[in-house]
Amino acid sequence: MKLPKYVVLKSMYNNKYLSYRDEEAGEDGQDGFIHLSDPDATTLRYSKFEVMESKSNAEKGSVHLKCSFNNKYLARQSPTSWWITASTDHIQEDRSEWSCTLFKPVLVDSDDYYNDDEKSTAVVRFHHVELNHFACVFQSDGSPFSDCLYAGRDSPNLNLFDAFSVIKWESLSQTGNPKRANKKKQVLPKFVVIKSRYNRKYLRYRNEEGEQHGFLQFSLEDDKDAAVANRYAKFEVEKAKSGNGLVHLKCCHNKKYLARSDSTKWWISAGADEVDEDDSKWSCTLFEPVFVDDSTATMVRFRHVQLGRYACLFNSDSSFGECLYAGWKDPNPNLLDVCTIIDWGKVQQEDEDDHGDEDAKPKPVKNQENAKPKPAKNQEDAKPKPGKNQDEDAKPEAETNQEEAKPKPAGNKQEDPKPQPPQKREVNESDQVEFTAISSQDTFWGAVFASTKILPNALPKRYKPIHIMRGDGFSQGSIREISFIQGDVEKLQEKIAYVDHENKTITWSLIQGGMLTHYDTFKITISVYPKKRRDRGCSVNWSYVGTNPKPGFDKDALMKLFTETLKTVDDYLETNAARD
Questions:
Q1: What is the dihedral of CA 464, 469, 472, 475, to 10 degrees?
Q2: Per-residue pLDDT for 370 more than 70?
Q3: Where do the Bet v I/Major latex protein domain residues begin and end (predicted)?
Q4: Which residue among 37, 66, 86, 259 is least enclosed by CB atoms within 10 Å?
């Protein structure tokens, strides 16, 4: 793969540009670091990089990246650091040296991302040859090093922290300003049906009793006409009095407006009795439609004005999976926040037009049935005989409909509906534990990710060393095997089915052993939230969903076990923090 000589690299995670941090602007020891910044004409000079192919045949396909602002090559900051900085004056092609400047561009599968930038020539990951790690964007809330370039991943990141769109420098330098998100001045229809671009399902109101009652969920799998006819899938768009293209969304089933479910959550539910345009209140019902450039359909993102975040599909195997959640600060590269808007009124009119055409056609079925003899024998005699010229107009109209409308002769087994075997109904059982931890939100979330090491250390009498079977143990798709010293379960294997670093939520799916003796499938989700008040500690929610529970299982004992586990881990973290 040959890259342009001069490039700008745009992050597929948040659409910002890799830029050199100017020494005068450096903070907290970040002079010379490569970080992400918003594209701007005044800072574009920091975003230009030169791509130089390796001179060695042994490293064919690898490149050196040179920052054009300070004319230095990208390399590790030091022998003990994985930060990538523009800090070295010379090319180093010896992969055994920490100062090696070689990167291997790896093309990203187009199925893994959505890219509407016309100037993009490719989407790649840069694999640091010496470390054997991918260069990625470091993400840590509150850290001054967040958004800096860091060679910290030994496998591709599913959230595209390590994926960059390659743009020719010349295509941007001519205009002086990178292309920004497309914001067409479009108007949404009065009544709409909303379809997710991620899972191709329609948004519907959850009318079922339970903890998701009143939530909105992308779970309706009908075709377009059926979705339009579904009373739970129709929404009304009302223009906001404050203008600026803002709208309110109202569920037509219960006549309530979409808003946050409560002051501490980012779930979007249909629960507001009236509009609220005060964007300082959690009850604000304002949404900003951000239109996505597409020539074949109306695609839009809905940005929740009060939170400043995009409403998206919550991608989880938990009981709240596919529900609407205002969780993304930036557009989601996997299209979790992109919706196709279907004009409810237009589809209804098209259906009426179609029915009108059918009503205009002659409908001889009933009259002809009454006029004709009933016995099948006479019907056969009335049919035209082969070989004779027949006038086309003399043929009976709508023969098929007549046959379907007439009673079938006894014994016509071909037409008789066959009894279908009863389908097994899937039963879901779920429960949750709320735990208030002394540790900070970041500390406890870090422990969740490091649980492969934390659990055997915090509970040495219960857990044996945990082994990573696939992946790195903390990214989606990773599989680990847990062995126990005591208890009824000897070992189990579980896979990370979903992980959201920003919102600090992770879901494990059991694939072997453990609770699978009591359920057909079993998944647990851990979410770590800040406390409602601004005091120390955090709130931890542990929940599970099991399908088709078997009799005789002590669910209370399971809840007690996990409550004790969470408390023990919290105590372990506090003890070690005090020791440090």
A1: -100
A2: no
A3: 426-576
A4: 37
